[in-house]
Every structure is written in C-alpha cells, then in structure tokens.
Design goal:
- This protein has 2 helices and 2 strands; from the N terminus they run H-E-E-H.
- The protein is an alpha+beta fold.
- It has one domain (about 5-70).
- A two-stranded antiparallel ribbon has the order 1-2.
- The longest helix has 29 residues, at about 5-30.
- The chain is rod-shaped.
- The termini are far apart.
Length: about 80
C-alpha cells in the first residue's frame, strides 16, 4: 500500500473516532441528571444521527387534587 493510501485511511479513521467521541459525549449529556425517562439513539449507516431525551416527571400528591385538575381544565 502506498503512503498516500495509508495516510488517507488513517485520517478517515481519526475522523470516525472524533465523530464517535462527539456522539458519546452528547449521549452522556442526555443521560446526565435523568432520573426517570428515556434516551433514544437513532443510527443510520452506522452513524448516530439523532438523540432524543424524554424526561418523565411525577406529580406530587397535592397536585392531583380536584382543584388543581380543574385549574388545568381537566374533568373532575
């Protein structure tokens, strides 16, 4: 293999490693502080193209009271 091809392959690998490191950092960020919920990672052609974070929040017991639900427009 010539030096030109060897250099090209190495640069491409570095680029893939950088993209992977970036994706992993973003996934870590999405997971940081998440107590209840989900993180969905969409991969296309071996590349992370989307990261979705859904956080679930539980209502406190007093927030379920009829007055509070009425203020939100819910049927009591």
């Amino acid at each position: 293999m010539s030096d030109i091809h060897a250099g090209y392959g190495h640069g491409l690998r570095d680029s893939v490693d950088d993209a992977t490191d970036s994706a992993l950092a973003q996934i870590r960020g999405a997971l940081h502080g998440l107590r209840s919920g989900s993180v969905t990672i969409v991969i296309q052609n071996g590349v992370v193209i989307q990261i979705d974070r859904t956080e679930e929040r539980q209502l406190q017991p007093n927030a379920r009271r009829p007055e509070t639900l009425a203020m939100l427009g819910a049927e009591v």
